[in-house]
Amino acid sequence: MRSTFLMPALLLATFLMPSSTPLASPIILATPVPLDRVDPARTRLGALRYLGGWELASTDPRFGGLSSMIWRNGRLLAISDAGAVFDIAVTGKVPSGAVRGMLPAGPGTGEAKSDRDAESLTADPASGRLWVGFEAHNAIWRYDAALGRAEAHVEPSAMRKWPGNGGPEAMVRLRDGRFLIFSEEAPGPAKSTALLIFPGDPTKSDAVPLLAGYRAPPGYAVTDVVALDDGRLILLHRRFTLMEGVSAIVSLLDPARIRPGHAVEATILARLAPPLTVDNMEAVAVSREGGRTILWIASDDNFSPLQRTLLLKFALVP
């Protein structure tokens, strides 16, 4: 994730390096927040309906930096850009959770935050296996379903020249077994950013991707992607300007429109901007609830006291 406006936070993060040693108080606490602080009764936002939101916090210094998450077994499984793993239950009106620990392995030695700069996460619903995309090393690692061990990893040649802080920002496994990996900054065709189409598991030696392009809304960068039950994709984007501050866009894309050598755009569903509750939104997950499609959106606080870890819950309006 490139966040030039957050350089002080990144410096602070070097002093908040997560430890692999379990701590005494790893519980994640949640405080409710409105969608609109000016109009607390507001619930509609474009094609989304606000169902609730919370500011998350924990005394565990490993907590923060949420960069990607998935919905699995009735819970949110999230990872941070320092390699920490979080488990968040949302069965009641207020979510609760805990810090599960650190990824069991990854690029480098793990001593530096950049070694475990996990930015993207996806899973195979059949086997439960998980894939994580790491910036800095521009690498993809595959883990077992329990996140207990690493099974394979690769630094694809197609990603070798991607910027160290603009690499595999978003990744999704499609229903047909293909993988899409979105770069935050690497150039793609027709004035877009790179979108790699892998025919299967990207960690396999014979997985040679095709290059397409994704054109984000002007001024925005893609930060996460997740597939709906019907195969369409929800994409999350983030932008920062001195005039507007932080804002986010949620878009919808049919992967059938993605073609090698061409750039594709998504349809905007909603935009989050002040005075709405928003921060550095980087993670999105999808669940089902009472026949409705639910979107979960979370922010990366960059381990900064000036930012918040937000978890927002929306229903996708048909």
UniProtKB/TrEMBL annotation:
Region: Disordered, residue numbers: 101-120
Signal peptide positions on this chain: 1-24
Domain Phytase-like: 62-303
Keywords, comma-separated and alphabetical: Signal
Superkingdom, taxonomy of origin: Bacteria
Pfam family, one: Phytase-like
Keyword Signal on entry: yes
Protein name, as recorded: Esterase-like activity of phytase family protein
Organism of this sequence: Alterirhizorhabdus solaris
Lineage of the species this protein comes from: Bacteria, Pseudomonadati, Pseudomonadota, Alphaproteobacteria, Sphingomonadales
